[in-house]
Fold Protein CutA.
Amino acid sequence: MSWGRAPVVLLGGGATLLLSLLWMPALLPAASRLLLLPRAWLSMASASPPPQSSPASGSGYVPGSVSAAFVTCPNEKVAREIARAVVEKRLAACVNLVPQISSILCSLLSDLSSYEWKGKIEEDSEVLMMIKTQSSLVPALTEFVRSVHPYEVAEVIALPVEQGNPPYLHWVRQVTESVSDSGTTPSSA
């Protein structure tokens, strides 16, 4: 028989809390913080929200000025060749190759690359390229990838980077700066 449970059952909700606080002094600091919650809720409702500091504040990074582009390739050899070329041309600062991803595809198009579509679902192993570049270079990057990629319709998807490690984002911009400033599209070789 549990001696501490009998009063809980007999006394009900409010008394249970009071007895628990008396029997367990370790809960007092937590209970005192709970009593302050209604006051905090009132002050939050009546006051303007506290200013949110931007993760990039003070870093000079403009959210969205760097992008991560994703390209799938049929194998590591093709991915490595494209990765080297985009870094050499300074269309990207860095390319990560993620081998052996599984792609499950469906399309209404016919004869895409090595796939025989006819409206059925295909599954294949590919290599994913994660390319870091300036957002302003995404059109040139896309054009270059399309010109050298073996797929008839190459996957090139870019997402703007809103936050990240400021020194890394600055490095991406620095490495690709000369291409961005020239305004010219590097030739596809």
Confidence is low (pLDDT under 50) at residues 1-56, 184-189. The two ends are 84 Å apart (CA to CA).
